[in-house]
Specification:
There is one protein chain. The protein is an alpha/beta fold and 356 residues long. It has 4 domains: 52 residues, no CATH class; 146 residues, P-loop containing nucleotide triphosphate hydrolases (Rossmann fold, 3-Layer(aba) Sandwich); 83 residues, Helicase, Ruva Protein, domain 3 (Orthogonal Bundle); 58 residues. It is built from 17 helices and 11 strands. Strands 2-5-8-1-9 form a 5-stranded parallel sheet. The protein has a two-stranded antiparallel ribbon with strand order 3-4. Strand 6 and strand 7 form a beta hairpin. Helix 12 packs across helix 13, helix 15 packs antiparallel against helix 16 and helix 16 crosses helix 17.
Amino acid sequence: MSEVTTLEQQADSGLMLEPDELESWIRTAEEQCGLIVQGDKKMLRALEELVLLRRSQAITTLIGEPGTGKEKFARFVHVLKNPSRPFVDVNMAGISEHLFESELFGHAKGAFTGANGGRVGRFEQAADGTLFLDEIGDMPYDRQGLLLRALEQRTFSPVGDNRQLALKASIVCATNADIHHAANIGKMRRDLHDRLCRCVVVIPSYEERSQEHKVSVIRYLTRKIGSALRCPELTLDREALQLLLQYPIDGNVRGIENVLERAGTYAVARGQTRIDMVHMQRALEEVEKSQDSSPQSTHLLSQLIRQAMSQGLHSTLEPLRSKIVRAVLEHAGGKQVRAARLLGITRQTLGRYLSD
């Protein structure tokens, strides 16, 4: 990124860091975390917010859609705060309820049936590094109190052990769930919600970002994929790049990477070092095909559409709209971008219909 570009973005975005310092952090994010922020005001602002808050002891909560780079941002927080210490990540939605305390806090030998040895939990593993609690918005309600107590008191006890261990790690949480709504309807404890909302950074979806930024991401991913395929000279031609930029991709940056990986594999398999239109078109078709083959509620969707047609549009649209949108969303495998495309509406309109 040129100094002129950085200065322009700083002025336009209301950024507070000096250009040289901002440039340095942008390079650090890319080189150490694989995080690309240049070319987009919202991404630059998110990075700057983390830099400005790096001395805060509050929990950092990252909110963004799946595939937007929440883990990369979490690793950037780690670089800011504890670069030489452990980075421990935990999928909070994937922990079995009956193993929740043992997984997070550890357990002593003989603490329960089958505990033939002690276990060091994730909190203790993180030591004075960074503990990344991913998908925190989807954790079971009846386990939220245990987590909240540890976060508030900054101490925890392994199961079957009377010792109180200090929680020394910096805490970073991430979710794609609407935690405000979850708290309002009783799916998240209000006191946990309030603690998570002290230092929130919102990560924009890939769709919201500028074209300049998207090009930077695509070129970075092409280099990364080329290295993995032992073809470091792998590039992307202009036509293939334009096709990828115009094509609505499910899965945000992760979806882009999936397409590029397939297209790159096709190119290298043919002894070529440039991804062209043929490779890109084939990759997009195959990715689209794999999404269409997943289990869907096609019967329900057809039923709803037939009902709307038989009863007349105006009399059936309002009561059926929400059901149709939800059915199409399920048909699209839960991918909002794909569902919106199938319905011919924007993702924002889709979100509004889903909340009706």
